[in-house]
């Protein structure tokens, strides 16, 4: 199970993303904390040691990119979640594993989580069994 942190200044955006993860990736991701800005996000990273940080870009006082100014050892994967497509190149320059535009599309979210699972399995194959390579996030059938 991947531990996730959501950093976004919009409470509704945090709530929606957490619900999407619970509904579509219940066996893969658990949201361990939410943060409303970069300073509280830095504290949550230290406290919870997440595997994934879902990170908004435009927030008051600090941008999502500035989070990395406060983190000496980045030992988590970053998935940017933003309404602004113009930051995509910059996001990948800070080693983001994915970049999701709001409103978040379910297929994109599932694919991003699968990328994190694959990356974690490649970095630490002894702690990940064969199920790490299978898609366990799923799209709801209508």
How would you characterize this protein structure?
The protein has 142 residues and is of the alpha/beta class. The chain contains four helices and five strands; from the N terminus they run E-H-E-H-E-E-H-E-H.
Layout of helices and strands:
Blueprint lengths: L1 E6 L3 H14 L4 E7 L2 H11 L3 E4 L21 E6 L5 H6 L4 E4 L4 H18 L19
Parallel strand pairs: 1-2, 1-3, 3-4, 4-5
In short:
This protein has 142 residues and is an alpha/beta fold. It is built from 4 helices and 5 strands, in the order E-H-E-H-E-E-H-E-H. Helix 3 links the parallel strand 4 (77-82) and strand 5 (98-101).
The tally of domains stands at: 1
Describe the global form.
globular
Separation of the first and last Cα atoms: 26 Å
- Give the neighbour order of strands across the main sheet: 2-1-3-4-5
Question: Tally of extended strands?
Answer: 5
What level of helicity do the residues show?
A: 25-40%
Q: List the helices and strands in order.
A: EHEHEEHEH
Give the structural class: alpha/beta
The CATH homology group name: Response regulator
CATH class: Alpha Beta
What's the architecture in CATH terms? 3-Layer(aba) Sandwich
Please report the number of helical segments: 4
CATH topology: Rossmann fold
Poorly predicted tracts of residues: none
In what range is the share of β-strand residues? 15-25%
Rg computed from alpha carbons, rounded to a whole number of angstroms: 14 Å
Average pLDDT value?
91
The main β sheet shows up as: 5 strands, parallel
């Amino acid at each position: 199970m991947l531990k996730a942190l959501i950093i976004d200044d919009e409470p509704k955006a945090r709530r929606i993303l957490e619900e999407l993860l619970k509904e579509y990736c219940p066996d893969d991701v658990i949201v361990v904390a939410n943060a409303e800005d970069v300073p509280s996000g830095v504290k949550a990273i230290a406290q919870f040691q997440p595997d994934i940080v879902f990170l908004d870009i435009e927030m008051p006082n600090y941008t999502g990119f500035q989070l990395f100014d406060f983190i000496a050892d980045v030992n988590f994967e970053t998935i940017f979640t933003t309404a602004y497509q113009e930051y995509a190149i910059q996001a990948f320059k800070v080693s983001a594993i994915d970049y999701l535009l709001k409103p978040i599309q379910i297929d994109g979210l599932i694919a991003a989580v699968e990328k994190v699972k694959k990356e974690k399995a490649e970095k630490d194959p002894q702690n990940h069994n064969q199920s790490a390579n299978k898609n366990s996030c799923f799209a709801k059938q209508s």
